[in-house]
Amino acid sequence: MLGLHSLTGCAIDKGTALAADFEENWAGTPDVAKIHTTKNNTLPFKGTSTGTLILKDGTSADRVTKLVGEMREFVARHDKTTGRIAADGITFTVVADERRTGEVLALWRSLTADDRVSDADINDAPWKGATDRWRIEVTAVDATGAFTVFKDMYAKGDRHRPLAGVMVLRVRGPGLFVESDFNDGFPAEAIAAYEAVLAQYPVVGATLRRDAMSGSAVSIVVAKGVDRDRAGELARRAAPNLGAAVQVTSANAD
Fold this sequence. Notes:
The structure is a single chain. The protein has helices spanning 4-7, 14-26, 61-77, 98-112, 143-154, 188-198, 228-238, and strands at 32-43, 46-55, 81-87, 90-94, 117-124, 134-140, 166-173, 176-179, 203-209, 217-222, 246-250. It is of the alpha/beta class. Strands 1-2-3-4-5-6-7-8-9-10-11 form an eleven-stranded mixed beta sheet. Helix 3 (61-77) packs antiparallel against helix 4 and helix 6 runs antiparallel to helix 7 (228-238). The longest helix has 17 residues, at 61-77.
């Protein structure tokens, strides 16, 4: 009789078979609390699957490292299966490339050690033929933490070592959402506008994100009673190339 693994290549619903293969392979693995799989049956005999190992609370960093190594070997043998690991609030994709996986593991270690971070997701995101691409989303405990973590992720040699080939970085916290620009880089003008207002007035909320027309969009909400026009002038002066993409409103506005 042929085993499940040897049947996945000719299964009609290949995504379903790949998911079952993942679950069978990792079932009973020590320190794994739960296995979550998705299945994508694109066409008869074609499909993909994503499998995530959700680790038990308190799993040691050494054990996570060992499981990452085992997962890397697994996905290297199963190119239609994406392997992921969730540990200490951080979920990340493990790829076959040893260098890239090492970088992700290092980022997992630094994020879990950062008390400003509540959770994060690091996902492989190939785009237009480029396979060395990542999409990173981080949730911070507050706006100050979100802003600092975002800048840290772009500061080489700082607390968090940046990954090579990041397609998009998003960091959010209560009162702030900030996203990398369309050139996959630091949104310098958007941040300059935010910092200019923050230096003079209390800010209750801000969104610094991509915009299809301008390349960046800034929305800042200042506290009740603040001179909104003056705050808007400060923001636009700090980001002259963004023009109408910079918007400043007041918390007491209708």
